[in-house]
Amino acid sequence: MAERERPTEFVQSVQRALDVIKSFTPKHPSMTLTEVAERTHLTRGAARRFLMTLEHLGYVRSDGRQFSLSPRVLELGYAYLSSVHPWDAAFPLMERLSDEVEENCLAGVLEGTDVVCVARTSRRLVTVAVYVGGRVPASASSMGRAILAYQDDDVVETYLAETDLKRVTPFTLTDKEALRAELKTVREQGWSLVEHELEEGLTSVSAPVFGVGGRCVAALNISAHGHRLSRQDVEERVLPPLLRCARETSLLFGHRPAGDGAA
Question: Where is the HTH iclR-type domain (predicted)?
Fold first, then answer.
């Protein structure tokens, strides 16, 4: 997707400070000044000034050589989670689902061309995991398709026109007409199933979550490798409680289905 034109009021120093924060990842939880400068494409002097400022504000900590994020960074994400939808209140529903199907449950929202994980349970230890704040391509994930399927036609067409459908695995759907047809199927059946497209051997099923006015605002997901979760398991063991959890979460977020008598 093409980068949006910067407004005249754009403050580049804010962008660079955020770039410094985002440079810390699960693979790079602690870095030297030089490493931060390399990952953010800043000079050492600029990187040092941003790190010192963030450390003074409490978002970064240092042992004198290595820098890492402090727990205060969580405040930035929590401000979003608490102000948009009550994921704290939805979490017990996700935990109940997770316990029932004995798999991890994820919640994701659409952000640009990706789905961002906003909540997850930890029922199982997994070798490859999407943690809170992690991103996956919307087009190749069941969460992304579950959300996209319920967007207005113009939103979907804009997404398809501006998104490069990259091949993540040999099984990833990259044809836009085929994806358009798949989104239609997802909307008709009310859930999305993706096998091997995001990761070989991974089976993933998601259900949409609706908010006020019937707008699809998120998706709930159960994923596991094929030896634990076959298509038959999805349809018989996972799908019924997943759909129930999605309905309950939708009600929590203010969705009132037609015919329920609500105003």
Answer: 11-71
